[in-house]
Give the backbone structure.
Amino acid sequence: MERRHLAQFVAVVDSESISEAARRLHVSQPAVSQSIRELEKALDTPLFVRGRRLTLTPAGRALVGPARQTLRSFDNARAAVKSVESLHTGRLDLAVVHGLAVDPLAPLLVRFRRRYPDVTVRLQHAPFGVEGFEILRRGEAELLLTDHPGPFPKHSSIEIPVSDLMVAFSPKATDIPPGDIVELADLVRFPLIIGLPERSASQQAFVAEVASANLPLPTLVVETEHREVILPLLLEGVGAAVLSAPEAMTAASMGAQIRRIDLPPLRSCVLYHRHDPLSPAASAFVSLVRS
């Protein structure tokens, strides 16, 4: 079994087509087909069900995760030899759940890019909850930024401070309570635009606070994971919006009226990675976060 066998196997899995995998790898289709046959012979089991549509066998599905990890180990070894300390090359693969990309991730990435300008950063969306950790298990990313407690013992974790949530009102709103802080009882009277998906720990904590205060849940006029739509809706008066402090400051610069919320901290953020050796880029990012 050689590296090319695993690389071409993963390419076929990702593209769901031998011909498309060959095109992406800039090799011939027969070469990819032959590589898959050699891999199946080495493992003594079929990896794909051949038919009108190429699908993985149970053995093929079991191989996907280890194959990705093995290819990453090859890449890590190459990158380590090229540049362990200077990081003149490499890529940082990081998965993040909605709601944490702006705060606290964005400032960390700014610091990282200034320190390591030659490293490419690849961000991908991570689902909330246990499903997000599957990205680490499958080797699709080395680092996971989430608000969910780690379900697996083979993970290292670093807690990262996050800013408190704030509420932003339309520039035209006239019924905002006076003062810099909005009480929870006042907040629930307003129709809200929520960028905290239902499964996020932040929204669950918010709902729990409302319930513990014996208050009715606010009317959610828009509930979305697409945070880029929140600001236009807010400024047009569709509803008030619960935002992170950096997002609230951006809204304020465009005329929105912002207030702090009389609530304990609702958000948490943890950076996770497997106990496996990290690539130089991921190791540098972890060191930056720890500092």
Q: What stands out?
A: The chain is about 40% helix and 20% strand.
